[in-house]
Specification:
By secondary structure, the chain is mostly helical. Helix content is 48%, strand content 10%. It has a single domain, classed as Arc Repressor Mutant, subunit A (Orthogonal Bundle). It has five helices and three strands, in the order H-H-H-E-E-E-H-H. Strands 1-3-2 form a three-stranded mixed β-sheet. Helix 2 packs across helix 5 and helix 4 crosses helix 5. It starts with 14 loop residues before the first helix and ends in a 22-residue tail after the last helix.
Length: 181
């Protein structure tokens, strides 16, 4: 564990969390830059996540050992996150559907990623942080949907012997294009 000078809460030294945090190390006043950093974090994280994302809550501790996901009965909100006993704890409402739980875990993960930045002065208010966490979770899940669609399309093409680009089927040579020389 390491402790930053301005942060009384130790930050886990896990590589994935550190890599995600490194994407947005400097506080910025631009909302656009916050969302751009979130997109880069999504691109970094998404290939490591299980498919389907509904398996994420069980898999997250394998990716980032300093995070524990716990299912809580009668939780009045979809989820919450806090630091305690040398771990980040994400509490998720047990009664929610698996898809909602995956969204909640990703939303709370974004709060963990951004935790060191939130302690800086002159940053977005809580409403902006919540919108950013929602955006992050939505983008990770949207990436999965796109990946599922791309995989399904590739599998369908392979099963039906359809080339990836119908203009260039294997049985027909492609025409070379170019200007006169």
């Amino acid at each position: 564990m390491t402790t930053t000078p301005d942060d009384a809460i130790p930050t886990p030294s896990g590589r994935i969390l550190a890599d995600l945090r490194a994407v947005a190390v400097e506080p910025s006043l631009s909302t656009t830059s916050w969302f751009y950093a979130a997109d880069r974090q999504v691109a970094l994280l998404q290939p490591m996540l299980p498919i389907p994302a509904t398996r994420l809550p069980a898999h997250l501790a394998d990716l980032i050992p300093s995070i524990l996901v716990e299912y809580i009965d009668n939780l009045p909100v979809p989820g919450t996150v806090f630091w305690g006993n040398d771990h980040w704890h994400i509490h998720v409402r047990a009664a929610d559907p698996a898809e909602a739980q995956a969204f909640t875990v990703l939303h709370e993960l974004k709060h963990i990623i951004d935790h060191p930045l939130r302690r800086q002065p002159n940053l977005p208010d809580n409403t902006d942080w919540e919108a950013l966490a929602d955006y992050f979770a939505t983008q990770v899940l949207a990436q999965e949907t796109r990946s599922d669609h791309d995989s399904a399309t590739k599998n369908k093409r392979a099963n039906e012997n359809i080339p990836a680009d119908p203009r260039h089927s294997p049985s027909q040579p492609t025409a070379k294009t170019g200007g006169a020389r």
